[in-house]
Write a structure and sequence with these properties.
Layout: E1 4-8, E2 13-21, E3 28-34, E4 41-45, H1 46-49, E5 52-55, E6 58-61, E7 63-67
Antiparallel strand pairs: 1-2, 1-7, 2-3, 3-4, 5-6
Length: about 70
């Protein structure tokens, strides 16, 4: 997994810092920080973070890697 700045398909930017594991299930989670507003921290399951979604009938990445932070 590449760390750095990703763009959500709706346009917002996020800084992905690392891959972490859930303490009970060991599910891999992506740790990332909003690059706007309160710059809050979030986690999302790795499978969901990197999945494709359908927008206007086309398959696109939920988050697209842009550059290193």
């Amino acid at each position: 997994m590449k760390t750095g700045i990703y763009q959500h398909y709706k346009g917002a930017l996020y800084n992905v810092t690392q891959l972490v594991k859930h303490s009970e299930t060991e599910e891999e989670l992506v740790l990332y920080q909003c690059q706007y507003g309160d710059f809050s921290w979030w986690v999302r399951p790795k499978a969901m973070f990197f999945e494709s979604i359908i927008k206007e009938g086309q398959s696109i990445e939920r988050f697209k890697w842009l550059r290193e932070a």
